[in-house]
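Researcher: I'm preparing a figure for a lab meeting and need a structural model of a single chain. I don't have an experimental structure, so a prediction will have to do for now. The sequence is pasted below. Please return the structure as C-alpha cells so I can convert it later.
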Amino acid sequence: MVDPAQRFLDSGNTDSGGPVRPPGYDGTMGQIGGIALLNGLLGVLTLGVYRFWGKTRLRRYLWSRVNFDGDRMEYTGRPLELLLGFLIAIFILTLLGIVFAAVEFVFPDNEVVLGISGVIQGLGFAFLIQIAIYRARRYRLTRTQWRGIRGGQSGSAIRYALLAFGWYFVAFLTLGLAYPVTRTRLQRYRTKNTWMGDRGFAFEGRAGDLFARWFIAWLLLIPTLGMSLFWYQANEFRYFAGKTRYGALQFHSQLRTGRVIWIGMRYLLIVLLLFGVLFAATAMMVPGLMGAVEAMNAGDEAVIEAMGPSVVLVPFAMLILFSVVSGVLQAALYLHPMLAEICWTLRIAGDEDFAAIAQSRQYSPSRGEGLADALDVGAI
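Model: Understood. Here is the structure written out cell by cell.
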C-alpha cells in the first residue's frame, strides 16, 4: 500500500517553491484509550470535578504527539483555568435562568409574553453557543506553543456570533443551498484572526469554488442517508487547507473521504453495539426490578432490605458504564485515528524564517472555555 504522504510528495503538487514537510503524529490508540479510561473513572469518583484535569491531561498528550520541523507542539493550559471559567459561566447562566423563570412566574397566563420569552431564550441560546465556540478557540490557541511561541486569536466573539447567526439564517432560508457561503465566510473570519507569534494566517477561499460539490452532496443527502455529507466535508477540508497561508508557507491536504467515512462509521457502529448490549442487559433485569418495586410498594420488608438499593443502583451503574466506555471509544476509535489521518495527509510547503517570529501580542484570557463547557459545545 502506497503511503498517501509519499503520493503527495511524488505528485509535485505545490507552487510554493520551497521544501515540502509533513507534520508528524505519533500518538497511540492504547495510550489515548488509557488516558480516557482513567479520566472517566476519576470523573465518576469525583462527581465530574475531575473532567477539567482529565481534559487538560488529554490535551497535553495530544499536543505533544504532533510535531513539525523537528519540534513538538505544547499545551500550557491549566485545569484550574477551566474550572474557574466553568463556575463563572454557570453563575451567569443561572442568573439568566432566574430571569426567564421570573417572567414565567409573573405572566403565567400571558401567551404573548411567554411566546416572546421562549423565542428570546432559543435565539439567545443559539447566539451564546457561537460566542462560546469562538472564545474557546481563543483559549486553546493562546495555550498552544511551538518552539516557545504561542498562538493567538484576535477578532470579536460577539462579531463572530453575529456573522454566524446571520449566515446560518441565510442557509436556513435557502434550504441549505447557501451552506458553502456560510462555511467560507466563517472560515475566513477565523483564519484571518488566527496568529502564531506575531504573524497571522491568511485565507483566500471562495464559496463559489465549493458550490458544485455541495450541490451534489445536497442532492444526494436523502438517497445516501446523509453519507454524502462526509464526502463534502472531506472536500471542504482539503479546499480550506489549500487556500490557507502562513507567511511563505502553503498548506495542502489529501484527506481521504473513504478513510473519514470508515473512521466515523466504525465508531458509530461500535457505540450502537455497546448501547444495544447494555440495553439488553438492563431489559433482562427489568422484570426482577419491577417485581421488587411492586413488593416494596406492598410493604414486604425482606424485599425492601434485599432489593431496595439495586432498584436505583443497577440502572445508574449501567448509565455510568456506558458513559465511561463510550468516552474511551470516542478517544481511541475516533479522535486518535482522525487526528492521525489529518496529520499524515497534510503537507506544509515553503520556506519560512521561524527564528524571526516574535512572541504573540494577542490578548490571552486568564480563564478557560467555561461557557463552552457549560453549554456542552467544548472540544478537545
